[in-house]
Write a structure and sequence with these properties.
This protein has 326 residues and is α/β, with parallel strands linked by helices. It contains ten helices and 14 strands. It is 39% helix and 17% strand. The radius of gyration is 19 Å and the shape is globular. The structure holds nicotinamide-adenine-dinucleotide. Nicotinamide-adenine-dinucleotide binds at residues 6-7, 9-13, 31-36, 51-53, 73-75, 77, 92, 96, 115, 117, 168, 170-171.
Length: 326
């Protein structure tokens, strides 16, 4: 297929692009490079520096490259930043997303895989959370993703735009070429690895009095390669229908203390931790059920062992101690 990947120079997008190319698809990457890295896009993909808000250029790109489907990953995705700058999140994640849909409708591209988030659920009433459970985001990031998902539902009904929306929690791990390099970094696994590498003094743990096995928050961590395959498998469904799927690594997740302990084991370093107060809006436990995508698409995660996930991130960081070359 000829596939456009928005945000394809970002952490997860670059791995999706890599896997699409490996599977023989033709790939066009569109990214404004505000948070992504030009060097992360494989040479076999066509790269276009473009902002989602530029509807006319998007239309021209979709026409010229005869794109058949879009994987939409471009977004702002930091919870804390979204609380401070909701306008930025509404503009980029909602207005930018609608601009993409306008361009798609104008060029008759009617297949979209959307990288949503499990933040649409807010503080789930039960665990593991399922797709039909209530959505009640607790921050603008989750809310803007849900607003876009809701638009997709109505665009499907009115215009026949088929979509698959993938809701997941913490992406982690790396391939040989592509890894996580954000500035600022807010995700726990790259942070603990930065501490192990001597680039930070300690890991700050937000709260150790939660009702979990060791008092620290419990989360699901999913390998970027498993995420990439889910996005690609979801493309195959779009000839038939639209769907919403949770993606989860399986098992019952890992606490922050367990993540740190495994990182100590994998790196052989001490990784000092400092325990501070809880962060507002952090639920004790966040894990989702992936039964629906397992049943409907046959997807299941290949990397369930956090040691392997952290090991792959460590290998990438050791090979790229200063991140990407741009
Ligand atoms: N990282 C996670 O743990 C996680 C979890 C759940 C969902 N997601 C979703 O997955 C997607 C990718 O996340 P990531 O961690 O790779 O983020 P990222 O910031 O590394 O990648 C996003 C990319 O989109 C680009 N971008 C942003 N706004 C754009 C715009 N208006 N026009 C063009 N390009 C734009 C950025 O430059 C960046 O390269 C996001 O949509 C995010 O909401 C991520």
């Amino acid at each position: 297929m000829r596939v456009l990947v928005t945000g394809g120079a970002g952490y997860i997008g670059s791995v999706v692009v890599e896997q699409l190319i490996r599977d023989g698809h033709q790939v066009v990457v569109c990214d404004n490079l505000v948070k992504g890295h030009r060097a992360s896009a494989p040479p076999a993909a066509e790269f276009v520096q473009l902002d989602l808000l530029d509807t006319n250029s998007l239309k021209a790109l979709l026409n010229e490259t005869r794109i058949e489907a879009v994987i939409h990953m471009a977004a702002d995705s930091l919870v804390g930043e979204s609380v401070q700058q909701p306008a930025r999140y509404y503009r980029n994640n909602v207005v930018g997303g609608l601009s993409l849909l306008d361009a798609m409708l104008a060029t008759n591209v009617l297949r979209l895989v959307f990288s949503s988030t499990a933040a649409v659920y807010g503080e789930p009433a039960k665990q593991p959370v399922e797709e039909d459970d209530p959505t009640a985001p607790t921050n603008p990031y989750g809310q803007t993703k849900l607003t876009f998902e809701n638009a997709l539902k109505w665009y499907d009904l009115a215009y026949g735009l088929r979509y698959a929306s993938l809701r997941y929690f913490n992406a982690a791990g790396a391939t040989e070429r592509c890894g996580e390099w954000h500035d600022p970094e807010t995700h726990v696994i790259p942070i603990v690895l930065q501490v192990a590498a001597g680039k930070r003094r300690e890991v700050e743990v937000y709260g150790d009095d939660y009702p979990t096995r060791d008092g620290t928050c419990l989360r699901d961590y999913i390998h970027v390669i498993d995420l990439a395959y889910a996005h690609i498998m979801a493309l195959g469904l779009l000839n038939e229908r639209s769907a919403i799927f949770n993606l989860c690594c399986g098992g019952d997740g890992y606490t922050v203390n367990e993540v740190i302990a495994i990182a100590r084991e994998v790196t052989g370093k001490q990784i000092p931790a400092r325990y501070g107060p809880r962060r507002p809006g952090d639920p004790a436990v966040l894990v989702a059920s992936s039964e629906r995508i397992k049943r409907d698409l046959g997807w299941s995660p290949q990397y369930q062992d956090l040691r392997k996930i952290i090991g792959s991130a460590l290998n990438w960081l050791q090979a790229h101690p200063d991140g990407y070359e741009d």
